[in-house]
C-alpha cells in the first residue's frame, strides 16, 4: 500500500484514532479525551482540549530554537520593497499588537474586523487576535463599503483595523473613505478604527480613529491566552446565494490539527522551507496557507503584494520563487492563464533559477487541462489541481506530495482526502455509480478544520448545508467520481459563480441591479471566460419609458455593482432584453441562458412558458458576440 492508501485505511478504520494521532502534532495545554462529540447533526472535534493557537504558530518555534529563521517574507513589487521577519520578530510584533488590543479593551471572544491590503501588519493583526483569543474577521479589500458594512453588522466587532490605502496596478485604492461609508451604513458601530498610514496615500484621521503606530506605542506585550479547542478562531464571510454573506466559523483545535496534517501529507512541506500561496489574506487560501499552516509547521511564508502579470511582467512569479527559494507555490488557474496569455512560450521563466520548486498546486476554480499541462511542461514539476472551499478550510480533494504522489489526471481535482467521505447523489439521495454526474456530498461528520457552524446562525448552517441530503454536507457542486476514485467538479448547483477564483453571488448582483428605478427585472449569469474562468453578464428588462436609454442605464448598472459589491465583481456586460425566459411558475431559466451563452447543448425544460423567448435571447447573445 502507498502512503496515501495507508492513511486512507487508517482513517476508514477509525476516524477518531486517525485524528487523535494527527492532533498529537500540536502543543496542547490539555490534550483532548473527547475526540469527536455529536449532538444531532452538529459535530465538534476535540471538545475538552485546550490550547493556544498563537503558541503553536509562533512561540513554540522560538522555544525550539527557530527564532532567527524567517517566518514571514513580505515581497511587494507594488512598493518595490522586500522585508523579512524572523519568528523572533513575529513574536515581538504580534505580542505588542495583542497587548495594544487588550489595552483598548479587546477580550477573549471579542471580534476584530480586518479590512486591509497585503501588508505584514494585516498578518500581525490576525495573529494578535489569536494570541488573546479574540476572533478576527478579515474582509477582502476588493469588496466595497456595503459588503464591509454587512460583515461589520454580522460580526459586531469591537475594533476595525484598516490601512490608508491598498495598491492595485495603476491605481491607489483609498480604504479610509470606504471604511467611513461602511460605518455610516452599518448599524453596529465599533469602538475604534485603527488605521495603518501608508506613504503612498495618507488618510485623514478623525475622532474614533487611531493611528496604528500610536495605537501600539508603549503597549505591554501580551501572553498567549489558552482557549477551548472548540472556541472560534475566526469568522470568514463567503458569498451566499442571496446578498447576505455567510459567516463561516473556524475553530481552534480541529483547524490547526487539519492544517498540520495537510502541510506534511498533501503539500510535502518540512520546517524551514519556503511556502508561497499567491492569494490574498481576504480569502480562505490566505487564512489557511499564507498565515496559519506555514507558520504552524515552522515554514517561511511569503506575503506577496503584486499580480502574476504587470508587476512588472509575466516573470513576476518566477522571480519570487528564485528570490525566496520557494518549494511549493499555490495559485489559482486564472493566474496561470494570465501568464500564459502574456508569455505563451514561457520565455520569462528562463531568466530565473527555479530549481527550488518541487510542486505547483492549483485551486480556487477548476483547473483547465490546457493550463495545467502548459505549466507542467514549462516548470517540469508536478502540477496538482485540488479542491476545497471556504467552508472546509483545507483541501478535501487533492493529491499527496508528502504521503506519495498519485498520477495526475488533468481535468480531475484528484482523490478524496482522508477525512472527507465523498458521495455522488441524485435528488432522491441515491448513490450514483462511477462516472455519473450528481450532487457532490460529504457524509457526516466532516473532518476537523471544517466549519462547525455559521456565526450565530446554526439554523442557517443546517439549512444551507445539511438539509438537501440528510446525513450529508452538500458542497453545492455537481461532479462525478471515476472508477479509480478520482473526483471531477463540473459546476455549481446554485447561483454562485467563480470569477478569477473569487466566489461571487449572482443573486447579490441581481439585488443591486433590480434596485435601479428603470429596471423591471433582471437575471445575472456566469459566462465562460478564457482568462477569468467566468464573467458575469446581466440581462435586464427595462420599463417601457427607459428602453431608449438602455446604453446609459447599462453603464450606470455596471458602476452600481462596482460601487456596491466591489471591483472583484467584474460586471462589464449588461444586455437589455424585451423579456426573460421563464417556467410557467415564473422561475427565470438562468441555466438555459448560461448554456446558450456558452454554446453548450441544452434541452429547454418542459415547463417553459414561451419557448419563442429563447430565440430572442439567442439573437441578443449573438449580437453581443456570444457564444465566443
Ligand atoms: C480553495 C478555496 C478558495 O477558492 S479561496 C479563493 C481562492 N482565490 C484566489 O486566491 C483568487 C485568485 N485570483 C487572483 O489572485 C487574482 O484574480 C489575480 C489572478 C491575481 C488577477 O488579479 P486582478 O488582475 O486584480 O483581477 P481580479 O479579477 O482579481 O480583480 C478585478 C478588479 O478588482 C480589483 N481588486 C482585486 N483585488 C483587490 C483588492 N484587494 N483591493 C482593491 N481592488 C482589488 C482589481 O484591481 C480589478 O480592478 P479593475 O476592474 O481592473 O479596476
From TrEMBL:
Domain called Acetyl-coenzyme A synthetase N-terminal: residue spans: 4-56
PROSITE patterns reported in the protein's UniProt record: AMP_BINDING
Organism of this sequence: Emcibacter nanhaiensis
Domain of life according to the entry: Bacteria
Residue span, AMP-dependent synthetase/ligase domain: 64-443
Protein name: Propionyl-CoA synthetase
InterPro entries, sorted: ACAS_N, AMP-bd_C, AMP-bd_C_sf, AMP-binding_CS, AMP-dep_synth/lig_dom, ANL_N_sf
Annotated family: Belongs to the ATP-dependent AMP-binding enzyme family.
Location of the AMP-binding enzyme C-terminal domain: 509-587
GO molecular function terms noted in the UniProt entry: propionate-CoA ligase activity
A Pfam family: AMP-binding
Amino acid at each position: 500500500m502507498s502512503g496515501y492508501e495507508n492513511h486512507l485505511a487508517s482513517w476508514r478504520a477509525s476516524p477518531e484514532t486517525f485524528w487523535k494521532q494527527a492532533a498529537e502534532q500540536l502543543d496542547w495545554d490539555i490534550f483532548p479525551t473527547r475526540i469527536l462529540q455529536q449532538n444531532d447533526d452538529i459535530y465538534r472535534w476535540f471538545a475538552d482540549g485546550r490550547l493556544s493557537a498563537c503558541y503553536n504558530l509562533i512561540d513554540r518555534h522560538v522555544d525550539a530554537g527557530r527564532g532567527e529563521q524567517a517566518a514571514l517574507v513580505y515581497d511587494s513589487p507594488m512598493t518595490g520593497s522586500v522585508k523579512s521577519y524572523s519568528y523572533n520578530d513575529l513574536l515581538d510584533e504580534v505580542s505588542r499588537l495583542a497587548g495594544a488590543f487588550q489595552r483598548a479593551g479587546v477580550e477573549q471572544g471579542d471580534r476584530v474586523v480586518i479590512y486591509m491590503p497585503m501588508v505584514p501588519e494585516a498578518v500581525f493583526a490576525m495573529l494578535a487576535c489569536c494570541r488573546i483569543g479574540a476572533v478576527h474577521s478579515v474582509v477582502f479589500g476588493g469588496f466595497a463599503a456595503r459588503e464591509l458594512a454587512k460583515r461589520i453588522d454580522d460580526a459586531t466587532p469591537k475594533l476595525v483595523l484598516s490601512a490608508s490605502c491598498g495598491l492595485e496596478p495603476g491605481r491607489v485604492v483609498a480604504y479610509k473613505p470606504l471604511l467611513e461609508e461602511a460605518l455610516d451604513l452599518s448599524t453596529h458601530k465599533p469602538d475604534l478604527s485603527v488605521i495603518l498610514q501608508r506613504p503612498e496615500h495618507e488618510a485623514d484621521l478623525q475622532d474614533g480613529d487611531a493611528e496604528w503606530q500610536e495605537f501600539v506605542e508603549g503597549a505591554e506585550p501580551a501572553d498567549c491566552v489558552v482557549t477551548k479547542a472548540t472556541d472560534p478562531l475566526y469568522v470568514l464571510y463567503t458569498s451566499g446565494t442571496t446578498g447576505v454573506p455567510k459567516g463561516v466559523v473556524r475553530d481552534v483545535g480541529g483547524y490547526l490539527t487539519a492544517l498540520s496534517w495537510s502541510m506534511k501529507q498533501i503539500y510535502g512541506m518540512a520546517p524551514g522551507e519556503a511556502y508561497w500561496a499567491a492569494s490574498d489574506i481576504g480569502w480562505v487560501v490566505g487564512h489557511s496557507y499564507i498565515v496559519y499552516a506555514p507558520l504552524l509547521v515552522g515554514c517561511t511564508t511569503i506575503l506577496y503584494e503584486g499580480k502574476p502579470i504587470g508587476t512588472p511582467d509575466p516573470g513576476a512569479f518566477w522571480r519570487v520563487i528564485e528570490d525566496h527559494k520557494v518549494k511549493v507555490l499555490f495559485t489559482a488557474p486564472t493566474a496561470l492563464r494570465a501568464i500564459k496569455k502574456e508569455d505563451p512560450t514561457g520565455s520569462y521563466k528562463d531568466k530565473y533559477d527555479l530549481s527550488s520548486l518541487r510542486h505547483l498546486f492549483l485551486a480556487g476554480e477548476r483547473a483547465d487541462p490546457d493550463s495545467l499541462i502548459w505549466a507542467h511542461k514549462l516548470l517540469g514539476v508536478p502540477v496538482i489541481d485540488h479542491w476545497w472551499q471556504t467552508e472546509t478550510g483545507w483541501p478535501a480533494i487533492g493529491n499527496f506530495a508528502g504521503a506519495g504522489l498519485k498520477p495526475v489526471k488533468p481535468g480531475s481535482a484528484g482523490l478524496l482526502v482522508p477525512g472527507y467521505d465523498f458521495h455522488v447523489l441524485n435528488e432522491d439521495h441515491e448513490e450514483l455509480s462511477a462516472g455519473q454526474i450528481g450532487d457532490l456530498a460529504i457524509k457526516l461528520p466532516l473532518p476537523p478544520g471544517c466549519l462547525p457552524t455559521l456565526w450565530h446562525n446554526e439554523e442557517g448552517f443546517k439549512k444551507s448545508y445539511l438539509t438537501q441530503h440528510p446525513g450529508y454536507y452538500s458542497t453545492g457542486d455537481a461532479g462525478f467520481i471515476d472508477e479509480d476514485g478520482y473526483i471531477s467538479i463540473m459546476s455549481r448547483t446554485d447561483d454562485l459563480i467563480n470569477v478569477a477564483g473569487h466566489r461571487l453571488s449572482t443573486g447579490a448582483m441581481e439585488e443591486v441591479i433590480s434596485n435601479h428605478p428603470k429596471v423591471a427585472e433582471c437575471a445575472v449569469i456566469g459566462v465562460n471566460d478564457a482568462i477569468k474562468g467566468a464573467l458575469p453578464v446581466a440581462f435586464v428588462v427595462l420599463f417601457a419609458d427607459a428602453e431608449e436609454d438602455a446604453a446609459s442605464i447599462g453603464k450606470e448598472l455596471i458602476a452600481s455593482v462596482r460601487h456596491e459589491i466591489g471591483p472583484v465583481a467584474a460586471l462589464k456586460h449588461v444586455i437589455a432584453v424585451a423579456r426573460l425566459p421563464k417556467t410557467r411558475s415564473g422561475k427565470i431559466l438562468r441555466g438555459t441562458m448560461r448554456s446558450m451563452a456558452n454554446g453548450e447543448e441544452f434541452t429547454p425544460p418542459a415547463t417553459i412558458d414561451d419557448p419563442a423567448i429563447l430565440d430572442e435571447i439567442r439573437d441578443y447573445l449573438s449580437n453581443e458576440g456570444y457564444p465566443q
